[in-house]
Amino acid sequence: MILKGDFLNMQNNYTTFLASEIDSCSLKDSAFAVLPVPYEKTVSYQTGTAMGPEAILEASYQLETWDGKSNPSAMGIHTCEPIDCSKGAETVLENISKAVNNIVDLGSIPVVLGGEHTITSGVIRGLISAGIEDVGVVQIDAHADLREAYEGNPLSHASVMKRVIDLNIPVYQLGVRALCEEEVETRKKFEIHFKDAEELVTQNIQSIELPKDFPKNVFFTLDIDGIDPSVFPGTGTPVPGGLGWYQTLNIFESVAKQRNIVGFDVVEFSPVQNFHAYDFSAALLTYKLMGIVSRSEK
To answer: How far apart are CA 262 and CA 109, in angstroms?
Structure first.
């Protein structure tokens, strides 16, 4: 058994992705840059998302480099120093933006591990500041996250996609099954594309077709609660009726075949104490998404 700390990055003193199988790789020589962001300030139900990134990194030691179809690690994976999340929300988001900007400038694809969903707006800021143009966001989530503010906080996890919309970034929502009337109206006002869980799951839809005018560059944000709680109960706000494991991967792949994936995040994972199957599943999900991106590069 590989124990915690066995593959700690001794130079920088933080855990690195898949360190049990691959050598350390510099950022400029890596196709993928894993950025841990253990931010948790506005969760409104079960806590624990701050522990998600570290749990995923530790569980990645148990992964095989062969993901079933290819070896994405052969393209190089660098793990960045975790973002300091002890500061205020704006400071954290700005630091995320700077880190993502640096990743993109050095030619890597950001793979961001949350933490609560609020962090995604910082990632998008970073992509924009790095000069990536014509970018849209595809979102898998149980919730629309389109509130102007939640509990008086415009930087809540429940408002993150509204903050993305405020940046004039088009959004396509998938798997939503919990939203309020305000969010329904926001969808209409901003002409947000969506396929909700009731359609996707009951019809067993395995792929989607993006609108012809949707941006050529896509950032994919995957909230763990978008997947059914039978697969991932380890999340702060579980909602029944979500996507299945293979359905999630197939839908992601259908997007990757149509557009250029400029990065993705996996957020809102909350580890279940003494039950590591979900940690491993989150790590495997992250790695399989890397594999899909690597096989779909345009």
So the answer is: 6
User: What does the alpha-carbon distance between residue 180 and residue 160 come to, in Å, rounded to a whole number?
Assistant: 15
Using the predicted structure, report yes or no on whether residue 197 has a pLDDT greater than 70. yes
Half-sphere exposure of 150 (CA within 13 A, CB side): 24
Tokens standing for residue 21: 């199988």
The CATH classification number of 25-295 equals: 3.40.800.10
Q: How far, in Å, CA of 187 to CA of 176, rounded?
A: 12
pLDDT of residue 7 exceeding 90: no
pLDDT tens column, 108-164 = 999 999 999 999 999 999 999 999 999 999 999 999 999 999 989 999 999 999 999
Boundaries of every domain in the chain: 25-295
The residues near 3 (Cβ < 8 Å, ≥ 6 apart) are none
* pTM of the full structure: 0.94
Q: Which two tokens stand for residue 144?
A: 């629309």
